[in-house]
Amino acid sequence: MLKLINELEAKAIAKINESKNVNELNEAKSTFLGKKSPISEIMSKMRDFTVEQKKEIGQRVNVFKTKIEECVNKKLQAIKDEEVNNKLKSEEIDVTLPGKKFSDGYLHVLTKTIEELEDIFIGMGYSIAEGPEIEKDLFNFEMMNLPKDHPARDMQDTFYITNNDLLRTHTSPVQARVMLEAKGKPIKVVCPGKVYRRDEDDATHSHQFMQIEGLVVDENVSMSDLKGALTEVFRKVLGEDTNIRFRPSYFPFTEPSVEVDISCFKCHGVGCPLCKGSGWIEILGAGMVHPNVLKMAGYDPNKYQGFAFGIGIERITMLKYGIDDIRNFYTNDKRFLKQF
Ligand code: DAH
What we know:
Layout: H1 2-18, H2 22-33, H3 38-44, H4 51-90, H5 109-123, E1 127-128, E2 134-136, H6 137-140, E3 165-167, H7 173-182, E4 187-196, E5 208-218, H8 223-238, E6 244-251, E7 254-263, E8 280-289, H9 291-296, E9 305-312, H10 313-321, H11 334-337
Parallel strand pairs: 1-4
Antiparallel strand pairs: 2-3, 4-5, 5-9, 6-7, 7-8, 8-9
Helix pairs in contact: 1-2, 1-4, 2-4, 5-10
The structure holds 3,4-dihydroxyphenylalanine (DAH).
């Protein structure tokens, strides 16, 4: 019988040590220590033995059980240790490996122009205002003194969404929104943003582009304030020797209206291909806010005057950096965009 237990013990130890995981180990344990194990069978036959044998075999069985338990516990620890080691190995990081290089981000050149202009205007006491790109006909046209069927609506071919909703064709509607909100108080704002027109895209036209609108409303505001403000801005953007001039023009929302030219910053007025030999470059539209526009927004035109202007962001950027095709801004060619 003792021989049998010795053999059983050797088998059990071998089986336990062969186990590759906790499941196999548990199986080995129940095979050799469980209720249906050979050792349990031996125990159940104890009553058939003599007192001497009972003592001897009983002791041996106890030793067997302790040894097997120990062996199982040792193996369990070994399996767990190995699992931890494998996990650590799989998560190993070689801190001496060279890192991956990420290229630096940079601002889009149009964003740069907008931020530069905003900084200059803020330095001159202006605040920034914004309006929605999906705009009401009311703000985009009616309140800008462009009633339905007004022929000047054709100047800005429009993407309509419904009869009353459209993609704004200019940033001027923000003027009306700001005036309504200011409820008769003085105003000094610039409003940058995207605008949309049903234009065929070519080197100088895009169905979507950007503007920055300016609006100053107060008592005693005059054309000379407009000229002074614009001169200061363009001297900061294009150089201290820049001059500006006004030419009479027409916009429904201003009276009088002007087209603003800047002195050519390339040839300094002598005449070159950039200014087409004239020494001057057309740059924006502006004027004194039309009394109708003031009235519709709740301002008394006998007490208040205002000036307004609309600057094309792409146009200034193209002039400043010598870019000859507006489509470069939107086609996301990194070789182009990285230059600025
Ligand atoms: N909204 C005009 C346009 O998009 C530009 C403009 C002209 C804005 C004169 C003004 C202005 O504020 O006074 O063509």
